[in-house]
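Re: Re: token formats

Sure, here are both.
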Amino acid sequence: MVVQRATSGWAASEVRWQDEALCNGAPLEVFVPDKENPEGLEEARAYCNPCPVRATCLRYALTYGQRGYWGGTDTAERRRLRAKKDRVKCPSCESRRVINMAGSDDALCLACGLSWLTSSAAQPRPRAQARPAA
């Protein structure tokens, strides 16, 4: 969701990623409705799911506690994401900043942006332990 504020308290570098967002130019009401509901979330996800900056958008909303639909999530989903402490590792960068998307089998790494199906064979592997030289 693109931040549209007349008097923004955020630095331009914090929101520069929004220029590449697929929702850039979409009506603000789609992403910040008076009341969030499943139909509104699905409408927002039509923009969010294929968006190249989805992970950055979600990270921004989690960092700043935004309300509305951001990065394909609603406010309640992000509240639950912030509460989770035990997360799997990303199979690419091994970061633990991984979230499971509610209502799907998708996982998303907030560190590198990789998305994968948790039900697929591409599960995170444990890091190999170095053996001491004999």
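Second one below.
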Amino acid sequence: MQHKTGSDERRTDSAAVLKSLVAITRRGLVDARAGEPTLSMTDQSIVMAIADQPGIRSTDIARMFRLNRSTVSRQLSALMSLGLVQETPSNSGRGRPLELTAEGEEAFRGTLRSLQDVIDAHLAQWTDDEVQRFAHDLRRFDSGDEQALPRPTRPPEEEEK
């Protein structure tokens, strides 16, 4: 079924989806900051990226979040000094792979627990069928049509030489 992408109602609904996703994520990440160690939203995002992709490099994180490499470097230095992230040896010569320490894994699990608590609270009054349908629709939304999505451009300092 084809939908008109420019209709006012569709644009309003699309904006409501964005607003809700941002608000729910923010609330969850703010709640997760109450744990120890206290991590900023950026710190939590970086920890989650490393947990999801052990061996990721700082340049990959910078590209993923569209941040300057120096910003990511500062964040990683702080996370390393907290004992949450460590570099691992590599023979590739293109940056050191990153992984979480045991403390980093625990911080990651704490963040996930806080986020899950927010989601569970929002879904408490929903039926099992409603939750199942919502999960299905979110998976569909998240997988998206990769070909239809605009490709992010790299900042000039990120371009391969």
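Strands lie at 85-87, 98-100. The chain has six helices and two strands.
- S.
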